[in-house]
Amino acid sequence: MRTHHPALTALTVFTGRTADRNERGMAGSLVVGLALARRLGLEPVRIGEPEAPFTGGWREQLAAATPWLQCLSAHYDALLRDGNTPLLTTMGRCASALATLPLVARHRPDAAIVWFDAHGDCNTPSTSSSGYLGGLVLTGAAGRWEADWKDNTGLGGDLDLANVILVGARDLDPAERALIDAGTIALVPAGDDLPERLRRAIAGREVYVHLDCDVLNPGIVPTEYAVDGGLSLDDLSAAAQVLADCGLIGLEIAEFEVGWSGVWADRKRLEGSPDTCSPDALLDALAPLFA
């Protein structure tokens, strides 16, 4: 039976820089946010101003992002404290969830965090070969970067990794695979019977959903990374139907780039497609969550 949840009322558009290596994610967050505002008749709250990307490791990127992430964290704290759920948020990069996940976990500690992503995003600074902040999100939000340092980021470390369900992750580093193999984090791979496997993993809990658009098959929407073996829009829609049957705390959409780049830009031009991409098909697939 479908669980009734109130209409989405809190639309947040985060356009701050968070370890961005180009400007397309910040612009994409605004495009998706405005499309949602039109579709749902909501007035968005915009947080963060786009800034030029720069080269630096996770420490430098986190320090530069922290002022706007603190604003996003305070905004989430107020919304969740006042019971303004379900939440709907757009962000350029997954690393911005360092500000949202600890607050969701603090206010709804038993919720399942359903993390759609081609990657695990659960390395630590000591296991990451790249030092990219976006690959450290889940462990950072859980205070797991250091053995005895609970708040690694200054944004909270309340997340319990046992509540995390990775969906569609397939490009996994050894340390991330080890967390999955140990049962610390659950994984629902892409493939047959995804909706039913996802339903079993959720096990009747409330859900907070993170969608990194690179969980989709390459070429559906523009993303920084393209990893084969992902979800189709039909797969995403079927998963959204399952999530709509749960108590929805919120949905955040990340990593939608405003235009095609690299080899995909060349392919789309050969197909006669425009350089930019509308988010409408993506939002259609997510429509069960907006009902």
Automatic annotation (TrEMBL):
A family per Pfam: Arginase
Entry superkingdom: Bacteria
Alphabetic keyword roster: Hydrolase, Manganese, Metal-binding
Gene Ontology MF terms in the entry: arginase activity; manganese ion binding
Aminoacyl-tRNA synthetase keyword on record: no
InterPro entries named among the record's database cross-references: Ureohydrolase, Ureohydrolase_dom_sf
Family per similarity comment: Belongs to the arginase family.
Protein name: Arginase
Species annotation: Paraburkholderia acidicola
